[in-house]
């Protein structure tokens, strides 16, 4: 009889295959790899990560069953359901095999860490009696708002108020009805089914959160009080993990040498869609005119295919390039964190995806916020109203855009936002130091996983 200590502890990560979910999951893998774990990433065929960017990880592909028409529909809620239906068996089979291989080597799979929307991975972990932990990649405020939205939907209040109302939502201060995290494409009923699954009857033993105490302490406390399992807020994960790129689109680094030639704090960095949303030709024309008319330098990310009806920038107004002159630089995809850290960047026009929001604050860059859908609406409200490091753009109209850019880059109001963002940046640096709250949570997480490992190990040795 005796305790067998595994030589290598393996973690299996299961990201949701969208950029804003892949990035924090693979950053988490990098952070945990640096703590001595070995990492296997179980990924869908759709949007599969590039193994060359992660030479220390192993990869397990899972057939996801997503058809071309599923992908073309842009219906995220349905596609997440398809992924959940199709990946379970393949993950179970692959992990059974992996567990046998590891056992023979005297190693162990410690845990499955899955995105909060990859429900099947939790089922597989239960089935194989593995520790299961979920990663939430949105803000804590968004979780709170989603639960509140479900409740309001159940009470029939959501349709009564309409989602564009400026009225405050009872019990969800400071959110207005227009800030609630509705889906873009799915009906409320369909979206509610997905959210119910994300927030009720979870069986995981812990929650990792890509957020930071100094930003969301009170919301995190409320959530922890209601939670049966420990919560580890270790964000922004990119600040506690060794640097890693998990971009699905090739970054165009030429924009860094363009930025090198621009004056300090002068450039508005425009990445107003993130990795999913898209724009009509008319909306793009408004943005183009607003930027050109501001007469300030801009770096604009236009993701291929994000202007509906064109491959890239074919539908930009004909006179745009003349109007913008050498004031503008357009790229397909930017090294965003490096851009935000560049001294020439004075502001960030963002859709306020949660990663972009954290990355902007982490560099002390104030924002122009124009959400597209979902959690971005909640983030915008917090950025503009609670943390006050950004201004909300109400409408995609050229005059309003021109005014917002000039207010942020040139006016005192923008400078005050930059000062507040700089203060938050300093707090982020403190929280992500070796002795800061995010690193403390990361170490607690490691201890938590190890404590399960040792329980697993206390078993009779063969022979
Ligand atoms: N991103 C990037 N280059 C770009 C645009 C985006 O590297 O040109 C990265 C960005 O740094 C962030 C992620 O893509 O980490 C987008 O995630 P976010 O949560 O902000 O938005 P989503 O794409 O999920 O809407």
Automatic annotation (TrEMBL):
Taxonomy, superkingdom: Eukaryota
Q: Name one Pfam family in it.
A: UDPGT
Keyword Glycosyltransferase applies: yes
Keywords of the record, alphabetical order, are: Glycosyltransferase, Transferase
Record carries keyword Glycosyltransferase:
yes
CDD domains, A to Z: GT1_Gtf-like (cd03784)
> What molecular function does GO assign, one term?
quercetin 3-O-glucosyltransferase activity
Q: Which family does it belong to?
A: Belongs to the UDP-glycosyltransferase family.
Q: Which PANTHER family match?
A: FLAVONOL 3-O-GLUCOSYLTRANSFERASE UGT76E12-RELATED, GLUCOSYL/GLUCURONOSYL TRANSFERASES
Q: What is this protein called?
A: UDP-glucose iridoid glucosyltransferase-like
Q: Which organism is it from?
A: Ficus carica (Common fig)
């Amino acid at each position: 009889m005796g305790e067998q200590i595994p030589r290598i502890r393996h973690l299996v990560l299961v990201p949701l295959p969208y950029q804003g979910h892949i990035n924090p999951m693979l950053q988490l893998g990098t952070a945990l790899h640096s703590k001595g774990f070995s990492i296997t990433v179980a990924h869908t065929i759709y949007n599969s990560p590039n193994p060359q960017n992660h030479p220390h990880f192993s990869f397990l592909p899972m057939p996801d069953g997503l058809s071309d028409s599923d992908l073309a529909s842009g219906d995220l809620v349905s596609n997440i359901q398809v992924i959940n239906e199709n990946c379970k068996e393949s993950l179970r089979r692959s992990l059974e095999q992996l567990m046998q291989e590891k056992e023979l080597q005297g190693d162990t799979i410690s845990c499955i860490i899955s995105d909060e929307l990859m429900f099947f991975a939790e089922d597989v972990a239960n089935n194989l009696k593995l520790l299961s932990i979920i990663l939430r990649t949105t803000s804590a405020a968004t979780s709170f708002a989603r639960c509140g939205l479900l409740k309001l939907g159940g009470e029939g209040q959501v349709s009564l108020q309409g989602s564009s109302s400026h009225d405050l939502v009872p019990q969800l201060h400071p959110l207005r009805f227009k800030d609630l995290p509705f889906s873009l494409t799915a009906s409320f009923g369909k979206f509610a089914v997905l959210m119910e699954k994300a927030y009720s009857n979870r069986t995981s033993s812990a929650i990792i959160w890509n957020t930071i105490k100094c930003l969301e302490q009170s919301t995190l406390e409320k959530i922890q009080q209601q939670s049966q399992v420990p919560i580890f807020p270790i964000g922004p994960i990119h600040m506690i993990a060794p640097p890693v790129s998990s971009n699905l689109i090739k970054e165009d680094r030429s924009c860094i040498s363009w930025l090198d030639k621009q004056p300090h704090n002068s450039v508005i960095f425009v990445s107003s869609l993130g990795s999913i949303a898209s724009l009509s030709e008319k909306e793009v024309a408004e943005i183009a005119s607003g930027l050109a008319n501001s007469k300030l330098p801009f770096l604009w990310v236009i993701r291929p295919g994000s202007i509906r009806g064109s491959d890239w920038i074919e539908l930009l107004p004909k006179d745009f390039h003349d109007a913008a002159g050498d004031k503008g630089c357009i790229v397909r995809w930017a090294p965003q964190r490096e851009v935000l850290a560049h001294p020439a960047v004075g502001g960030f026009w963002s859709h306020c995806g949660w990663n972009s929001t954290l990355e902007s604050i982490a560099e002390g860059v104030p924002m122009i916020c124009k959400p597209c859908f979902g959690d971005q609406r909640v983030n915008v409200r917090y950025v503009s109203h609670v943390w006050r490091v950004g201004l909300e753009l109400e409408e995609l109209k050229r005059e309003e855009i021109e005014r917002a850019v000039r207010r942020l880059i040139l006016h005192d109001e923008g400078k005050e936002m930059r000062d507040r963002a700089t203060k938050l940046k300093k707090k982020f640096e403190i929280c992500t130091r070796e002795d800061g709250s995010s690193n403390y949570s990361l170490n607690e997480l490691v201890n938590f996983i190890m404590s399960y490992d040792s329980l697993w190990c206390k078993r009779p040795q063969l022979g």
